[in-house]
């Protein structure tokens, strides 16, 4: 079946694409209506899921009608990768190990609740403290996470409550805590999303095994529940979590919880639960700063082995400010593209490859903005954009700002001139021509202007 499916895929997507994305895919076991496929990296897994997930499901279903779902896992070999340091699978509860990340691609309707023998979700081996880039916005949360990984259940740090917006590193830090503890081999760790917690709980009720579920949960040393906000409005599950929480904390076990808001802002969670959640250490992860975004991009670019010029990193850090996930996604796409076509990463290529992402982040640019950005770039005073000073130090940036105003706004030449200290429109024409000449003569200057243009471009 496998080789037939591979041949079909290759025929459909072409040799190049197949070799780039799909060749390294391995086939795993079939479990009832589900087949597991392996990919060597998280990035490939995500990519293949996004691009080919549905198609893979359909092909497998056509080949073996009983198969309705395809699971994509991160693993290096065609057999499930189980971390050697992990507690053995037969020690109940099966503690999480640095095993592959399992996420399902639903071909048809996802099954609502599934009973699985393992208690918790596996940890992503890529989310470690080493790969977490620390900066002002996340240093406190990072320090707390490290502290809990070193000495779980310390007074004052139990529970550890991590909160912050989407894509800022909450899950990464929780996995890092788990991996660190598992690596040390000291304790059993269970990590799962609040959603999974609920499904497990419901499944246990259905199969009349709630006692077993409770016992399993209460026998771990560290319980981590991700995205607790999911439990808002799920009263029964909240209740169950509250009891589990109390039982564990009373028994001196560590709890780590994440959510998108602070305990006091999680209205919709029961008061007594919110109170208890706020009792230990509450650490928030703030939105990224430009500096942190640069550091993260540098680290990820270095790890990829693809050379990404500093200008490109700077450009991305300016443009994609929403969260780390998007930033990472943009960089990954660039890197994939560079690998795929064997071309160096340049600003032009970036603009091309990330066209859609950048467009979504764009807005109309004004002459004032252009003047401000250009003045900042060359470190001159904003007032010099309209001053009479003629020394090259200020005249050149002023000309660039005029050139960019012509390029990026729909203002007429006289209008632009007026904004630059009531200069004549012929001055603007001269500036535009002069900048174009200089760009031809001096590649470094051209690159500066291009960078500014791309940053401002609407
Ligand atoms: P959250 O759970 O807060 O929504 P994640 O932990 O899933 O966010 O982070 C989203 C992505 O960004 C992940 O791939 C993660 O590795 C990466 N990431 C977030 N913060 C950092 C950081 N400080 N250093 C390195 N990678 C980060
Ligand atoms: Mg998360």
From TrEMBL:
<dbReference type="GO" id="GO:0005886">
    <property type="term" value="C:plasma membrane"/>
</dbReference>
<keyword id="KW-0547">Nucleotide-binding</keyword>
<dbReference type="InterPro" id="IPR038454">
    <property type="entry name" value="DnaA_N_sf"/>
</dbReference>
<dbReference type="InterPro" id="IPR010921">
    <property type="entry name" value="Trp_repressor/repl_initiator"/>
</dbReference>
<dbReference type="InterPro" id="IPR020591">
    <property type="entry name" value="Chromosome_initiator_DnaA-like"/>
</dbReference>
<dbReference type="GO" id="GO:0005524">
    <property type="term" value="F:ATP binding"/>
</dbReference>
<dbReference type="GO" id="GO:0008289">
    <property type="term" value="F:lipid binding"/>
</dbReference>
<dbReference type="Pfam" id="PF00308">
    <property type="entry name" value="Bac_DnaA"/>
</dbReference>
<feature type="binding site">
    <location>
        <position position="167"/>
    </location>
    <ligand>
        <name>ATP</name>
    </ligand>
</feature>
<keyword id="KW-0238">DNA-binding</keyword>
<feature type="binding site">
    <location>
        <position position="171"/>
    </location>
    <ligand>
        <name>ATP</name>
    </ligand>
</feature>
<dbReference type="GO" id="GO:0005737">
    <property type="term" value="C:cytoplasm"/>
</dbReference>
<dbReference type="InterPro" id="IPR013159">
    <property type="entry name" value="DnaA_C"/>
</dbReference>
<dbReference type="InterPro" id="IPR013317">
    <property type="entry name" value="DnaA_dom"/>
</dbReference>
<feature type="region of interest" description="Domain III, AAA+ region">
    <location>
        <begin position="122"/>
        <end position="338"/>
    </location>
</feature>
<keyword id="KW-0963">Cytoplasm</keyword>
<feature type="region of interest" description="Domain IV, binds dsDNA">
    <location>
        <begin position="339"/>
        <end position="458"/>
    </location>
</feature>
<dbReference type="GO" id="GO:0003688">
    <property type="term" value="F:DNA replication origin binding"/>
</dbReference>
<comment type="similarity">
    <text>Belongs to the DnaA family.</text>
</comment>
<dbReference type="GO" id="GO:0006275">
    <property type="term" value="P:regulation of DNA replication"/>
</dbReference>
<feature type="region of interest" description="Domain I, interacts with DnaA modulators">
    <location>
        <begin position="1"/>
        <end position="89"/>
    </location>
</feature>
<dbReference type="InterPro" id="IPR001957">
    <property type="entry name" value="Chromosome_initiator_DnaA"/>
</dbReference>
<keyword id="KW-0067">ATP-binding</keyword>
<feature type="domain" description="Chromosomal replication initiator DnaA C-terminal">
    <location>
        <begin position="366"/>
        <end position="435"/>
    </location>
</feature>
<dbReference type="Pfam" id="PF08299">
    <property type="entry name" value="Bac_DnaA_C"/>
</dbReference>
<feature type="binding site">
    <location>
        <position position="169"/>
    </location>
    <ligand>
        <name>ATP</name>
    </ligand>
</feature>
<protein>
    <recommendedName>
        <fullName>Chromosomal replication initiator protein DnaA</fullName>
    </recommendedName>
</protein>
<feature type="binding site">
    <location>
        <position position="170"/>
    </location>
    <ligand>
        <name>ATP</name>
    </ligand>
</feature>
<feature type="domain" description="AAA+ ATPase">
    <location>
        <begin position="156"/>
        <end position="359"/>
    </location>
</feature>
<keyword id="KW-0235">DNA replication</keyword>
<dbReference type="GO" id="GO:0006270">
    <property type="term" value="P:DNA replication initiation"/>
</dbReference>
<dbReference type="InterPro" id="IPR027417">
    <property type="entry name" value="P-loop_NTPase"/>
</dbReference>
<keyword id="KW-0446">Lipid-binding</keyword>
<comment type="subunit">
    <text>Oligomerizes as a right-handed, spiral filament on DNA at oriC.</text>
</comment>
<dbReference type="InterPro" id="IPR024633">
    <property type="entry name" value="DnaA_N_dom"/>
</dbReference>
<dbReference type="InterPro" id="IPR003593">
    <property type="entry name" value="AAA+_ATPase"/>
</dbReference>
<comment type="function">
    <text>Plays an essential role in the initiation and regulation of chromosomal replication. ATP-DnaA binds to the origin of replication (oriC) to initiate formation of the DNA replication initiation complex once per cell cycle. Binds the DnaA box (a 9 base pair repeat at the origin) and separates the double-stranded (ds)DNA. Forms a right-handed helical filament on oriC DNA; dsDNA binds to the exterior of the filament while single-stranded (ss)DNA is stabiized in the filament's interior.</text>
</comment>
<dbReference type="InterPro" id="IPR018312">
    <property type="entry name" value="Chromosome_initiator_DnaA_CS"/>
</dbReference>
<dbReference type="Pfam" id="PF11638">
    <property type="entry name" value="DnaA_N"/>
</dbReference>
């Amino acid at each position: 079946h496998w080789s037939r499916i591979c041949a079909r895929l290759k025929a459909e997507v072409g040799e190049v694409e197949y070799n780039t994305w799909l060749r390294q895919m391995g086939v795993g076991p079939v479990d009832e209506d589900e087949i597991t496929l392996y990919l060597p990296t998280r990035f490939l897994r995500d990519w293949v899921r996004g691009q080919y997930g549905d198609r893979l499901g359909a092909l497998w279903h056509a080949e073996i009608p009983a198969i309705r779902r395809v699971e994509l896992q991160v693993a290096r070999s065609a057999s499930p990768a189980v971390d050697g340091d992990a507690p053995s699978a037969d020690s109940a509860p099966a503690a999480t190990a640095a095993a592959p990340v399992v996420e399902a691609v639903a071909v048809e309707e996802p099954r609502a609740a599934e009973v699985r023998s393992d208690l918790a979700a596996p940890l992503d081996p890529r989310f470690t403290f080493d790969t977490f880039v620390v900066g002002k916005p996340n240093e406190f949360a990072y320090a707390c996470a490290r502290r809990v990984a070193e000495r779980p259940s310390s007074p004052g740090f139990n529970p550890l409550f991590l909160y912050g917006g989407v894509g800022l590193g909450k899950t990464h830090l929780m996995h890092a805590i788990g991996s660190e503890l598992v690596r040390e081999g000291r304790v059993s760790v269970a990590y799962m999303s609040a959603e999974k917690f609920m499904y497990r709980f419901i499944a246990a009720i259905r199969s009349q095994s709630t006692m077993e579920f409770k016992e399993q949960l209460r026998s771990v040393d560290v319980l981590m529940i991700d995205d607790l906000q999911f439990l808002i409005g799920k009263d029964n599950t909240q209740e169950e979590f509250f009891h589990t929480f109390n039982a564990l904390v009373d028994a001196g076990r560590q709890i780590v919880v994440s959510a998108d808001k602070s305990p006091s802002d999680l209205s919709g969670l029961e008061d007594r639960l919110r109170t208890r959640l706020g009792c230990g250490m509450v650490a928030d992860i703030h939105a990224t700063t430009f500096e942190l975004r640069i550091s993260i991009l540098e680290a990820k670019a270095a790890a990829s082995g693809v050379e990404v010029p500093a200008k490109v990193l700077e450009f991305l850090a300016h443009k994609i400010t929403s969260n780390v996930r998007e930033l990472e996604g943009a960089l990954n796409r660039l890197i994939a593209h560079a690998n795929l076509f064997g071309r160096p990463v340049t600003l032009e290529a970036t603009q091309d490859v990330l066209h859609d992402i950048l467009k979504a982040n764009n807005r109309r640019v004004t002459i004032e903005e252009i003047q401000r950005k250009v003045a900042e770039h060359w470190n001159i005073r904003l007032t010099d954009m309209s001053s009479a000073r003629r020394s090259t130090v200020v005249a050149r940036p002023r000309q660039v700002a005029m050139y960019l105003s012509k390029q990026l706004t729909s203002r007429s030449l006289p209008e632009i001139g007026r904004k630059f200290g009531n200069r004549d429109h012929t001055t603007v024409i001269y500036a535009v021509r002069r900048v174009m000449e200089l760009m031809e003569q001096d590649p470094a200057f051209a690159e500066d202007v291009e960078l500014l243009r791309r940053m401002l471009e609407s």
